[in-house]
Hints:
12 helices; homodimer; Creatine Amidinohydrolase, Chain A, domain 1; five-stranded mixed β-sheet; 18 strands; globular; alpha+beta; 2 domains; Creatine Amidinohydrolase
Amino acid sequence: MVEPDFPASEFEQRLESAQREMRAQDLQALLFTTEPEVRYFSGFRTQFWQSPTRPWFLVVPARGKPVAVIPAIGADLMGRTWLDDIRVFTSPHERDDGISVLTGVLDGYARIGMPMGRETSLRMPLADFDRLRASLPGSEFTDATGLIQGLRMVKSGAEIGVISDICAIASNAFQKANDLFYAGQALTEAFRAFKIELLAQGADDVPYLVGGAGSGGYSDVISPPTDQCLQAGDILMLDTGANLTGYFCDFDRNFAIGHASDEVRTAYRTLIAATDAAADRARPGATCAALFQTMALCVGGGSDVGRYGHGLGMQLTEAPSIISFDQTVLQEGMVLTLEPSIALSNGKMLVHEENIVIRDGPPDFLTRRASPDLPVLDRARTGV
Amino acid sequence: MVEPDFPASEFEQRLESAQREMRAQDLQALLFTTEPEVRYFSGFRTQFWQSPTRPWFLVVPARGKPVAVIPAIGADLMGRTWLDDIRVFTSPHERDDGISVLTGVLDGYARIGMPMGRETSLRMPLADFDRLRASLPGSEFTDATGLIQGLRMVKSGAEIGVISDICAIASNAFQKANDLFYAGQALTEAFRAFKIELLAQGADDVPYLVGGAGSGGYSDVISPPTDQCLQAGDILMLDTGANLTGYFCDFDRNFAIGHASDEVRTAYRTLIAATDAAADRARPGATCAALFQTMALCVGGGSDVGRYGHGLGMQLTEAPSIISFDQTVLQEGMVLTLEPSIALSNGKMLVHEENIVIRDGPPDFLTRRASPDLPVLDRARTGV
């Protein structure tokens, strides 16, 4: 029997906060089509979202509990959440993949909020969305991105607990670096070994593992691994979004294979210093823009990454962004990555990343902090 | 250095087929926002799509090579694909996340096709899409779901090779079932052990592993695992979408822990017979609806799953659907799952799944076929 990830009180709290905002914004309902939002209000968690075949809908009314409008294949699992009202449709369906049921649920709501802004998407066919709007001529669909992102970016104690757990698991896995990675190893094998270590340490899944390796730095931070073999003088960076009970960590670690140049060692220390400086400023009341400026001053110009951190939680990256134009004011309970990057003279770069939670005082690091000096892996040399 | 997954000729062939259809349908361009379609025409493969922050666009003109319109963070990796024309925008951006660059690329095209139908979604902010349409008053955006699904559902030899490889890897992992799963084991640990085995056998990732376990069957096929322990008499089902070079397998296996009732054994044999019967009919020229009817006759009424199989490839599930109303005519090179399910008298169900490729003659099974009788795991009993 699948038990909910959180007690009903967690979802009641989320709903209450959403409904308070909805009333303030004169929204009669919210409509969600995407996995994190459906899960946020219902607790419905399944990898079945990997299949693009069927749409899933959740309606949050301004009063009363959310209503799920879902394919029959999900009725059993949704029935074990805290929701009471679950409307099921046959899917795939020749002509009507849930739209008539959804229309019935939304009928009568004058203003319906949906995520339409930055970082959002529409997980249903555009043609069906147009049909839905046409079938509800009395309803205005309006952007509720700020509402939902504002709620989700402040984590509850229970959420912080899970993120803390997955950060600890990944920290334990990185701790094994000297056993896992070595000169002569293909990068594909290094990635494979690290994924297995993450699972063995207790991660549920590793939906995200990217990285780079190259002599004196790397030029890319989003690539899959190649068969290229690690060599002495390479800098290996692994950046993982491992997952536990549907929550992510998101941080990286850098390692020198055998040795590193003075420039790279210095650049690494600069990134650590930038992280320290940002953590010093990361207090309730400070803005994301201020954290960005703090790190930008340390690293003296950035890279193509475009920002120096972001929120994380049910998704690998979430609002807010630690970037020059994001004036989001930090609040206690926000979970953030600090992710400064630095350009090297050879055209390559280094990126460093930690995960913190904003507290009433100094932030807590959820990641076991990286060593202040670039770690050197030398298994081959020492014969370990 | 990341090498493309396929030679340029593979992408040239895909483009040529698309452009032939575009001319037939009087489409001057196609616009894609989703990972599989961007990858299909460019070869751009990264787990960075896990981050919802930035939109990515690919424009396929009726003549000439595709144009990528992407965030700067992806320029290096996209630069290693076969594409020549890569337009980069700064992202995240305060006001313009690529829309003005995209508008410039699309300007002048009268009819622009996009996926808007069954199984599609829009991976960009709705508000930005509305802005894009408003900035191109001379362009009509129209549904091109059939065009892109029609192309993607027929796989090339290279694609079939990769899917075949991941099916073999998962078949090898299932072969170890008697070493991996046992009475007294928590389901979470069974899942973990199987994921590690899949990676050790050569899978790149395991984005999808669901399953069920229960006395005499299971009631749900999309749940994450619980801490419940496997017991004698349980039927354990694991359904995996493991991944290699961006292509999925998608099949399951059923196991009896210790023993199973006659009803369950008979139901299992019925599913195998249904799969055999469908494979016998799976020839070029047959329809998906005919395969569905063949299996429905064998199992005598279905479950809430709603269909008995589907396409697979770059996604866990793809068009077509093996369902009563899908009149798609099978063609050589289509890769399909055959996935009959059967209801049991206790209200539970069994599901069985194999992956095949349509050939000029009998289909090839890409999965190592399940045993004709329900396998019994009895490690504890035999002391193995």
